[in-house]
Amino acid sequence: xxxxxxxxxLGLLAYLAVLIxxxxxxxxxxxxxxxxxxxSEILKACKNISWLNWVQYNxxxxxxxxxxYIPLGIFLVVLLPGVSILLLLIxxxxxxxxxxxxxxxxxxxxxxxxxDVLHNALGGFIGVVISASIRQLMRSRAKARxxxxxx
Length: 151
Fold this sequence. Notes:
5 helices, mainly alpha, globular, 151 residues
């Protein structure tokens, strides 16, 4: 395994540690401390920006769920290049569903919702689409460059 691939796998492991910690923490991660402070500050900032003053806690939480899963989709495409796009698109939905079910059954202070599953899956979907699109663009450019050089 080359250094670039090993670094990418290491990045995935670090990301999964953050994802699992945030998802399976016994109490809501925004229930106090730094996350609660950041949430409050972001909502205050949104109130002061005319085109964002409609943002409430629920919208911010939904956006955070989407953003949290975008890297999963990117890592899937980068690390599993031979896997079908359909399977890559389904994987974040399955991961999110499992996480939310674990919350529901084993973490009574957490709130497991279908909305969370869908927002998480949307983030993974966005990550897959962006990463797969960039990969395809790079392949197309390499092919065109090769053709223009007469290879």
